[in-house]
Amino acid sequence: MIQFSTWDILRNLLFAAEWTILLSLVAFVGGGALGLIVLFARTGRSTLLRRVSILYIELIQGTPLLMQLFLSFFGLALMGFDVPPWFAAGLSLTLWTSAFLAEIWRGCVEAIPRGQWEASSSLAMTYFEQMRHVVLPQALRIAVPPTVGFSVQVVKGTALTSIIGFVELSKAATMITNATFQPFLVYGLAALVYFALCWPLSKSSQILERKLNVAHRNH
Amino acid sequence: MAYVFDYAAIIPYAPLIAKGVGITVELTVVGGVLGVGLGIACAWARSLGPKWLRPPVSLYVEMIRNTPFLIQLFFIFFGLPSTGLQLGEMQAAILAMVINLGAYSCEIIRAGIEATPRGQFEAGASLAMTRIQTFRHVVLMPALQRIWPALTSQIVIVMFGSAVCSQIAVEDITFAAQFIQARTFRAFEVYILATILYLLLALLLRQVMRGLGSLMFPRRRVAR
């Protein structure tokens, strides 16, 4: 029987962590792009678009991520599409991220004083020009810390994709446990790898919040 | 090939789903109550407790907040038995949820406690209240009232997290859904049903928390 040293276990976990990072990046970038579209719909002037985007956000925030994963993995397969686990994982995490980011960013957009909207509309700017030149540059400053903070949720969310069979850090930990019968060590190490990924993000979110708040304190 | 929906295939499994709803509710209620209790204790320790208690509590909070619930659950269910602590799946699930919610609610409640003006402590002391009385009446209750909406959202998130407990064979809604899916191959129907059930439970939980809030805080103590 092959013996696994602690280093073997850690090396394999780190190898699998690459997929956790990659999936997090895909979800964050894709979710950010889609989230921006949802944000425009949510804060825009069309009542229909606003209602649709509210429904979208409520549905995604109001149901477990695991159910969304199952629906896209098993559900789409039954509709006749051939869905590999990585696609279902990427798709549902992207949708999930977009709903949360859109809602976070909406808060930031609404924190911009109404006078800014009135001033820019009196300059005959269209909605997109207002967002592009007046509101978003100011909202960005408030939006950075919570966005970085949410990225931690995305990294942790990728752990669920192991349940539909996507091999990332959690799935690798389960597989290594099945081979080594050392769950305490393996899951402990996996937790440490997640901690090493997430803690810098949490910390930088806190530091950014303190730093970027300086300009706001004296208003 | 067009897919034909067939919800009738699920009907024979209704008792299994009903049991699943019961288990999910049980997990949420027990985990929620104990978790918020742990959160209050940790928030006290981190903001008002003795100095030596703060680093270990901070470490606990940071460790839990920066690792996925799935790994925490597996660590407790599969990992702890090797140290001699054997837990059933229900106990492991509840322990994991309490530990998880304890860390998150600690941070939320601490934010509420730290928003208490200093004068309130002094006012409590000048009314000859003991430290415990001051904490309970002057600090904690207004703090809870301040952060009640955030706490509600966190408990809803924990309820969604409880779906993961199906992976250690806790027979909750997700477990029932996976079981039925494996038997009938009616994945779309059964997962849509499960999703709707979670949606309804979340709405119900928000209502219950709102009712509990107005019961616990009959007067508006906090000037907003």
TrEMBL record, chain A:
Highest taxon in the source lineage: Bacteria
One term under GO cellular component: ATP-binding cassette (ABC) transporter complex
Entry keyword set: Cell membrane, Membrane, Transmembrane, Transmembrane helix, Transport
Record's keyword annotation contains Transport: yes
Record bears the keyword Membrane: yes
Biological process according to GO: amino acid transport
Domain ABC transmembrane type-1 as annotated: residue spans: 17-205
InterPro entries tied to this protein: AA_ABC_transptr_permease_3TM, ArtM/GltK/GlnP/TcyL/YhdX-like, MetI-like, MetI-like_sf
Subcellular location: Cell inner membrane; Cell membrane
SUPFAM superfamilies: MetI-like
Membrane topology: Multi-pass membrane protein
Annotated TM spans: 20-41, 53-80, 86-105, 184-202
Single GO term (MF): transmembrane transporter activity
Pfam family, one: BPD_transp_1
Family to which the UniProt record says this protein belongs: Belongs to the binding-protein-dependent transport system permease family. HisMQ subfamily.
Protein name, UniProt field: ABC transporter permease
Species the sequence originates in: Azorhizobium oxalatiphilum
Automatic annotation (TrEMBL), chain B:
Single GO MF annotation: transmembrane transporter activity
Signal peptide: none
Subcellular localization(s) per the UniProt record: Cell inner membrane; Cell membrane
Keywords: Cell membrane, Membrane, Transmembrane, Transmembrane helix, Transport
Membrane spanning residue stretches: 20-45, 57-80, 147-170, 190-209
Topology in the lipid bilayer: Multi-pass membrane protein
A GO-annotated cellular component: ATP-binding cassette (ABC) transporter complex
Domain called ABC transmembrane type-1: residue spans: 21-209
Alphabetical list of SUPFAM superfamilies matching this protein: MetI-like (SSF161098)
UniProt-listed CDD domains: TM_PBP2
InterPro entries named in the record: AA_ABC_transptr_permease_3TM (IPR010065), ArtM/GltK/GlnP/TcyL/YhdX-like (IPR043429), MetI-like (IPR000515), MetI-like_sf (IPR035906)
Keyword Transcription belongs to the record: no
GO biological process terms, semicolon-separated: amino acid transport
One Pfam family cited in the UniProt record for this chain: BPD_transp_1
Family per record: Belongs to the binding-protein-dependent transport system permease family. HisMQ subfamily.
Protein name per Swiss-Prot or TrEMBL: Polar amino acid ABC transporter permease
